[in-house]
Design goal:
The protein folds into 2 domains: about 200 residues, Alpha-lytic protease prodomain-like, CATH 1.20.1510; about 110 residues, Cation efflux protein, cytoplasmic domain (Alpha-Beta Plaits), CATH 3.30.70. It is about 65% helix and about 10% strand. It contains 10 helices and 3 strands; from the N terminus they run H-H-H-H-H-H-H-E-E-H-E-H-H. The chain has a 3-stranded mixed β-sheet. A hairpin with a 2-residue loop joins strand 1 and strand 2. Helix 1 packs antiparallel against helix 2, helix 1 packs antiparallel against helix 4 and helix 5 runs antiparallel to helix 6. The chain is elongated and about 85 Å long. The two termini are about 45 Å apart.
């Protein structure tokens, strides 16, 4: 399944689930009058509203490239994610306000309704399944907006759980459990908003990708037998995608055709890394004096996970061999 279809399908699934939950909670609320279920119905109403915005945003980001957007529209996704973050912050603040007000006012017990318990439990299970689905697709398709949606669904698991604790607490004669649980959940919701903002601001400001990915870029470039070294390696986010530029060092006696083939091979190898979009390779012949030491590139060339890292002697030998 292509990325466009997978991402749009997530948007439709999220909207459909939120509408179904809204209708179910509203029906139970009208029958039981449970405040916990009523607040969850309002939460689902907000979820359904922003789900339509998310669906529209995902539709735009999956449009094919055009004259004004030659690289496609995926780079809009971080802005869609930030919209989700705003909704997360609003939900966290609302839950915290309601919890504080309830504690100060002194909550009263209304008794536990079996149908209210059932709808809240069903909400938690449904949101967990939706969370796992969105998280899997978001990671597989490199979609920050879908990952942010997954985290928002994780919040809904917490709020449904807090409402369930409130309903059961009221039935057991301890209604104070409702606002206390909601207060704890609100802090978790606000932290999720911080996570979404932090991750997507990195996309927007062109931060460097993780060290493991940068190391793979250098190691793929150096894996070609005619590449003697690499320097000035730059990798940064442009939206959710990664642009790469680097200089490779080669012997200067090769033909232009051979140098072009070598450059193409390195570009194609690096571009195979998931998330990498554009790759720019500059070929530096030895005779022009453009070979130079680059401690960061040498470090990344010998980077390995802690469990399988090379010793310092092995790393030094590797770098010298590549520059020989």
């Amino acid at each position: 399944m292509e990325r466009k279809t997978a991402v749009r399908r997530v948007g439709l699934a999220v909207l459909a689930v939120n509408v179904v939950l809204l209708l179910g909670k509203a029906a139970v609320w009208s029958v039981t009058g449970s405040l916990a279920v009523g607040s969850e119905a309002v939460n689902s109403l907000a979820d359904a509203a922003y789900s339509m915005v998310i669906l529209a945003g995902l539709y735009v980001t999956t449009q094919p490239p055009d004259f004004e957007h030659p690289h496609g529209h995926e780079r809009i996704e971080p802005f869609v994610s930030l919209f989700v973050a705003v909704g997360v912050f609003a939900a966290g603040a609302a839950v915290l306000w309601q919890a504080t007000t309830a504690v100060l006012a002194g909550p009263t017990a209304d008794g536990a309704s079996p149908i209210a318990v059932a709808v809240l439990a069903a909400t938690a299970v449904t949101k967990y399944l939706l969370y796992r689905y969105c998280l899997r697709v978001g990671r597989e398709r490199n979609s920050p907006a879908v990952v942010a949606t997954a985290l928002d669904n994780r919040n809904d698991i917490l709020t449904a759980g807090a409402a369930l604790i409130g309903v059961l607490g009221a039935g057991a004669g301890y209604p104070i459990l409702d606002p206390l649980a909601a207060g704890v959940v609100s802090l978790g919701i606000l932290y999720t908003g911080v996570e979404i903002v932090r991750d997507n601001v990195n996309y927007l400001v062109g931060a460097a990708p993780p060290e493991e990915l940068r190391a793979e870029i250098v190691q793929r470039a150096l894996s070609h037998p005619e590449v003697k070294g690499a320097h000035d390696v730059v990798a940064h986010y442009v939206g959710p995608e990664i642009d790469v530029s680097l200089h490779i060092e080669v012997e200067g006696d090769m033909t232009i055709r051979r140098a072009h083939a070598l450059e193409t091979a390195v570009v194609e190898s690096v571009r195979e890394i998931p998330g990498v979009d554009d790759v720019f390779v500059h070929v530096d012949p030895r005779e022009l004096g453009e070979w130079k030491e680059d401690a960061e590139a040498d470090r990344l060339a010998n980077y390995a996970p802690a469990s399988g890292a090379e010793s310092e002697d092995d790393a030094e030998t590797t770098v010298k061999r590549r520059r020989s």
